[in-house]
Amino acid sequence: MNRLRPSERFRPWISLYVTVIATATALIGIKQMRERNIWSMGDWLVNYQGGFVRRGLPGEAAFRLGQLMHVSPDVFVLIMQLACYAAMFYSFYRLLIGLRLKLWMILVLVSPATLAFQLEEYPSGFRKETILLAGLGLLILVLLRGSIRDAWISAYTTVFVAICILSHDAPILYGGLVLAALAIEFGLSRRLLNVLMCPLICMFCMLALTLTHHGDSNTTRRICASLGYNVEERILPAPCRGEIAQIGLTLQEERAEARYEHPLWHYNRRYLVCTLLASVPLIMAFAALWRWKAGRPLLKILLSMIALTSCAIGVLLYMTIDWGRWIYIGVFAIALLLMMIENIRQSDPSEREADERQRASRTQVWQTNIATVLFVAFYSLSWHLPHSRPNDFRFAGYTVRDYTSLALSDLRPSHFWRRAHR
């Protein structure tokens, strides 16, 4: 049975918001491609030209396609980035548009830690975690359709896991949330084990492969040379000093940077505030869904997977400085899973009738509506989730408007294609 139903009343406003965010995201993507940003582009340009190495699958695909079509690999990186964002936005939109909206859903929609994260602080976003979030969103849509054979779901999950691990090793720590999606649909049953068998075997094989091919400084230089840069000098050129250079760092070197940055920027205190703010709609969602007694086992599964994932990403928080990125992945993924459970709840005829009775008995006064609008506006515009080095809590609306205008002012077609073909 298809549990995704349209909501005609709110469709235009949700569609408009998602369209604006998607358009701004595409413009920022073009801008950071033209600048060949050392992080958002460098993350995707890691390839196998220096030998097999972790995180190299998307970069190798872009490199090979660039050679085949005589186009800069940057163009194919941008296509992959925008394809991932398109899948993320589509799955988020489809999960939300079929629901009878509640306040927590609106807050999830406008939260600086979900759809708008990549616009809040340039250059945030456009990293390989979008592969994880896009794949998870599409998996949830497939599960809610309810008409796909288990073998196809297992095959999709296997390919999804393989691509995620070969693209970046860190997002595998969020695997518990992917497991949560499958467990919510299949329950803790033998059917779940059958679906998970191939993905788990693939996961262990891919992890063994990536952990034994960490990379070193020579790998970094060969990757940089394959992209057309001069690596004879002692200092690498700018595009190779970001994510590509990280391939050559040891764990001790990565930890040394984190040890210096964390106390300097007061990470614990500032990111605790950001995490609490990002969690407001999620807590509201859990409180609302807990009233549905039949759904409590699903919420318990999700809570257990959140606890497992939180323990796993503690390693990332200890070793890295881009805490905002890891918080964003968790918040976005949990929001998708909560909307999945809400779709299941609202597909229950008894719950649909209860919602209608509650709506009919509720007195809608204009003061309440205005207060709700003001609260949503304040929540969405009064804070932002910094990617790293939390410095302040700027007014997020200015940041989105500022960088969108920058992207628009930089769109000169002849210059863009000249750079793309270089």
Automatic annotation (TrEMBL):
<feature type="transmembrane region" description="Helical">
    <location>
        <begin position="270"/>
        <end position="289"/>
    </location>
</feature>
<keyword id="KW-0812">Transmembrane</keyword>
<feature type="transmembrane region" description="Helical">
    <location>
        <begin position="75"/>
        <end position="93"/>
    </location>
</feature>
<feature type="transmembrane region" description="Helical">
    <location>
        <begin position="365"/>
        <end position="385"/>
    </location>
</feature>
<feature type="transmembrane region" description="Helical">
    <location>
        <begin position="301"/>
        <end position="320"/>
    </location>
</feature>
<feature type="transmembrane region" description="Helical">
    <location>
        <begin position="154"/>
        <end position="180"/>
    </location>
</feature>
<keyword id="KW-1133">Transmembrane helix</keyword>
<feature type="transmembrane region" description="Helical">
    <location>
        <begin position="192"/>
        <end position="211"/>
    </location>
</feature>
<keyword id="KW-0472">Membrane</keyword>
<feature type="transmembrane region" description="Helical">
    <location>
        <begin position="131"/>
        <end position="148"/>
    </location>
</feature>
<protein>
    <submittedName>
        <fullName>Uncharacterized protein</fullName>
    </submittedName>
</protein>
<feature type="transmembrane region" description="Helical">
    <location>
        <begin position="326"/>
        <end position="344"/>
    </location>
</feature>
<feature type="transmembrane region" description="Helical">
    <location>
        <begin position="12"/>
        <end position="30"/>
    </location>
</feature>
